[in-house]
Amino acid sequence: MSPHFTTLDMVILVGYFVATMAVGFFFWKRSRSVENYTAAERSLPGWLTGLSILGTYVSSISFLALPGKAFAANWNPFVFSLSIPLATWIAVKWFLPFYRNAGHVSAFQHLEARFGTWARTYTGVCYLLTQLARMGAVMYLMALPMNVLLGWDIKTIILITGISVTIYSLVGGIVAVIWTDAVQTVVLIAGALACATLMIFKLPEGPGQLFAIASEHNKFSLGSFGASLTESTFWVVLVYGLVINLQNFGIDQNYVQRYLASKSDAEARKSVWLGGLLYVPLSAVFFFIGTAMFAYYTANPADLPEVYRAANKSDYVFPHFIVSVLPPGLTGLLIAAIFAAAMSTISSCLNSSATILLNDYYLRFINRKADNQKSMRVLYSATFIWGALGTGVAIIMTGAPSALDAWWMLAGIFGGGTLGLFLLGFLSRRATNRAALTGVAAGVVLILWMTLSSKGWLFPEGMRSHFHTFLTIVFGTVAILLTGLLVTTFLPGRPTAAEASKTSH
């Protein structure tokens, strides 16, 4: 353990873990029914679910990677955040009323009525695999810098995190997940603001030196405003951010459950606006921390080991700053904030995955008439199994770093396919089963080509994609939507069951 990590820091960190576990067990008796466990009886205030949305959005990857990106380059990735207000408005105006009116706790149930059983099953499988990838990546990328901070074994950190989150998610259900998300969000916001405030005055010549160094090196740049599709220009990042955020608000089970957990339509709208818009200034704080670190280590170059100056090591600069520069107490708060950012994301993944496994698979294919007791057993078992699998994925990544890229590649493929299908069904009432199948096939093929060929796999030089990787999910989503609309227009097939039912009435 680093000598800079004091007894006070340990007390703060242990206190955070104890408080988190206590919240989970506090809501144990309140989460004995399926409705409570998955939708909190649709009774929670908007401010609470809004903080939970924000906590789900901010993972340890964001907490560590955003300062790292600003340190190594500039504020170009912040453009992603600028797309959130538009995505939030779209969600409040169309997505949220759609799910609130449908009332289904599963985000994918309506796709069965729209396109058939295959659509619900396909999107559910994509979602479940994506959540495994997400949990594994979040724990793995959190454990790497925590190893630098604490000196603990990486696998030990992963196991502590995985076991803790699985326990409180299992016993407390969505109510415990949302309350712990809110607490963890407050912790990470407090940690980020405290760190940013301290850094303003940390340079020898004060705040003026920080901004002078940053301006001299163009650290506040948002990127090129050119029309290139091969670079991360302002426009490429903005469009990518819009598509990713539409995916989050439109088809992500984590968000849909929070829409339903709110006690009224007005509170649900409040939660989406709160969770969505708060991320913009919070992400700006993370980028400012990265810029301030650049200024600090430019003024104090001997304080940063040479190994951390490489671009691929930029994510380690913030942990090094925490453990070597911050005073006792604040170090513990920042470490707790890193854990909080990871655990809030993982707990949401666990509860949403268990909800999908129950509603879209067990109740749909195995036991349609299962009572509350049997359904709760499925939820408990699914939470435990997915927690173990997610922890296992993270541990596997410690021995095979290249697996991380593979998992995120698959997450992109799955994400693009599900968003395109959702938008096709949402925007076109005439879209048929044939159109949906054709669209998904075309989109997935395009995503696979862009993903694999950009890495130099399978395809010869002349057939490789030269677009920026951010555009993979954008083009894939658009391909599914446009192909589906074209097939609907020129090759109409038989109406879906839902359309036939409407016609007969």
Short overview:
The protein has 505 residues and is mostly helical. 76% of the residues lie in helices and 0% in strands.
Describe the model:
This protein has 505 residues and is mostly helical. The protein is 76% helix and 0% strand. It has helices spanning 7-26, 34-39, 46-57, 60-72, 79-82, 84-102, 109-115, 117-150, 154-200, 207-216, 234-251, 253-261, 265-299, 317-324, 330-366, 372-399, 402-427, 433-454, 471-490, 497-504. Helix 8 (117-150) packs antiparallel against helix 15 (330-366). The model is unreliable at 500-505 (pLDDT under 50).
Topology:
Elements: H1 7-26, H2 34-39, H3 46-57, H4 60-72, H5 79-82, H6 84-102, H7 109-115, H8 117-150, H9 154-200, H10 207-216, H11 234-251, H12 253-261, H13 265-299, H14 317-324, H15 330-366, H16 372-399, H17 402-427, H18 433-454, H19 471-490, H20 497-504
Any descriptors?
single chain, 505 residues, mainly alpha
- Give helix and strand order, one letter per element, not per position: HHHHHHHHHHHHHHHHHHHH
- The portion of residues assigned to helices is over 70%
Overall geometry comes to: globular
The count of β-strands is 0
Largest sheet: none
Please indicate the percent range of residues in DSSP E strands (runs of 2 or more): under 5%
Overall pLDDT score: 89
Rg on CA atoms, Å: 23 Å
What structural category characterises the helix and strand content?
Answer: mainly alpha
Task: Work out the helix count.
Answer: 20
Q: How far is it from the N-terminal to the C-terminal residue, by CA?
A: 70 Å
Taking pLDDT < 50 over at least 5 consecutive residues as the criterion, the unreliable ranges are: 500-505
